[in-house]
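Entry for the shared binder. Reason: the reviewer on the internal report wants the predicted structure included alongside the sequence.
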Amino acid sequence: MTAIGYVLAIVLVGLIILFITWVWWILDAFSLMNWLKSDRLRVKREAINIAKSRI
């Protein structure tokens, strides 16, 4: 999508596409931290459950 935006920026239509992808990147950058945090917590819970089941 970014490459298409840069190609179409010549006719100004691509600027809209580029704006959308930039907003998308920013949202992903902020939400990625939360996704990683929740995944780490899930893995820790699974590890604790496995350790408890072996006792």
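Summary line for the report: The mean pLDDT is 88.
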